Amino acid sequence: MLLRFEELRKVGDVYINPKNFKVAPLFIRDWRDLLGLDEGTYGPYARTIYNPEQRFLAVDRKDEKLAKELETLYRELLRRPLRFCREEYYRYQLEVGEFDGLPFANGWPGSGVVLVGEAPGRKGCGKTGICFYRDASGMLLRKTLFQLGINPDFVYITNVLKCNPPENRLRGFGEGDLSLLQRELEILKPEAIFAVGRTAEKALKRLGYEAVYLRHPAWYVRRGVREPKGEMLEEYSVIKEAFGEWRF
What we know:
alpha/beta
């Protein structure tokens, strides 16, 4: 589950994980080139540093400790999935997933910034196991953060629900979902939490966490937005303020 910072390689202005590439990229200048890579040629995880076996970035020993605690929590999810996921969601997740395991979370535990989404998407996290990745809303989120000067792989991203609801039709969340999210946040002790979507906002309120609400990228996608601009950049700029200066 651990991905050490020294395993990454900087190419142009971005970091890549060499293990994620079927063939090495010929040329990358910036995030636009990275997100434009063809996964058929380079691999399904070429546009992120994470994969199902390497979910948590560790920059120092403190990060490694947090990553081990998160891995323990993830292993508990794998052992007792029906404790934390509705059975219909779990069964459907097994159908749509193209990776070993279940969706959980990914990112840098030491960033101090946590984005909480609603649930894995059928064409995104549900397929790949990586939060906000591959589908339209996930890639719009990544483009927006990059445009704001934040590498999305260097924040921590999770979801309230860990299994994909059938056909993406979310019907609320239960105590099992909340208990897992609470334990996750207790490990992280984030300085800033962002609720991406109303479901995330409701869940975090139930748990007693203060969070900044952000409209889900899917809200923008449904209105024809495919590239970061104007209203979305302004709304999501609060993440930049919380993250501070980019230090890598």
